[in-house]
Amino acid sequence: MFFAQEAVQLEHPAHGPGFTANEIQELLSLLQSPSPTENSGSRGSNQAVYSIDERKRRRMVSNRESARRSRWRKKKHLEDLTQQLNRLKIQNRELQNRLGSIINQSHVLWRENGRLMSESVALEARLSDLRLVLAAMNAMQQAQ
Q1: Where are the domains of the chain?
Q2: What pLDDT score does 8 carry?
Q3: Where are the coiled-coil regions (predicted)?
Q4: Overall average pLDDT of the 76-82 stretch
């Protein structure tokens, strides 16, 4: 047909998102297969068979490429979700640390507030006692 029967050497091997070696070999074998003979029927029927085969081959190649793109999108989506998960785990850990720190500060402030309230009550009582003593002293001075 179009290709000689010798082995085809690719300058750049197909890696990554392209076709696999088996897929390339299968496509080459389709291209190297002999074309339908014109002796078996009219030229129009051979052309119709060839165009059906060609359409099948193109559809197969298109479907494989579409599946490859779909796998790539799925892989990319999974990678994006994994990165988002890692970011959210880090953010969650930071928020938990901040919350723990704030809770500790809150406990310290509650204890300090309790101590200050007790001190205030004690000082109010002392002030009240001092006022009573002062009033008694004033009363004694006025009585003299």
Answers
A1: 35-143
A2: 47
A3: 78-105
A4: 98
